[in-house]
Amino acid sequence: MTDAPLPPAGGSSPPPQGGASFVGDDPATVLPTEAYTEWFTRVVAWLVDYIPILCLLGIGWGVLLGTQETDCLTEVSGYGLSESCARGASTVGLLTIGVTSILVLTYVIWNYGHRQGTTGSSVGKSILRFKVVSEKTGEPIGFAMSIVRQLAHIIDAVICYIGFLFPLWDAKRQTIADKVIGTVCLPL
């Protein structure tokens, strides 16, 4: 006989004990593949998350390219007159690209670090109604681990982006970064 508690009336299983996984290996708590967020939904959430980034960078690069300055140099020599011109970035353009780059970094840290780390959902994930949680606890993973998870996506990209396709065939619909960090995506 085991010391495991009996399931409460109503047929649901008790919460995981000790090191048991929230959605993991214990047959009583394993979720079917359909319970995890679909790959297409995750891709659309990523696109939504990157709209503000593309807008900010577009503004920065637009100002940088639109305010270029042309400097011409005319040389008089024994062979005649020659002129050469070069285009370069203006001070306004460089300042704009610098400010928009800082704004992008701030948004990424807020969206993927603070917001996703504390609530489980970035802006895109909130709109598409799912969250990233710890596989062990079912809770959001916190600021630092959320940033580490985003950096772990480098692994997904290094192998010809195949890591991002893992949710198409994985039972828990995890990317390689999710497996490394121990996270899953669940609908709200």
Automatic annotation (TrEMBL):
Membrane topology: Multi-pass membrane protein
Pfam families (alphabetical): RDD
Every RDD domain range: 37-181
Transmembrane domains' residue ranges: 43-67, 88-110, 151-169
Subcellular location as annotated: Cell membrane
Biased composition (Pro residues): 1-17
Keyword terms: Cell membrane, Membrane, Transmembrane, Transmembrane helix
InterPro entries, sorted: Pra-immunoreactive, RDD
Any one of the GO CC terms: plasma membrane
Record flagged with keyword Methyltransferase: no
Ranges where the record places region Disordered: 1-24
Protein name stated in the entry: RDD family protein
Gene name tied to this protein: pra
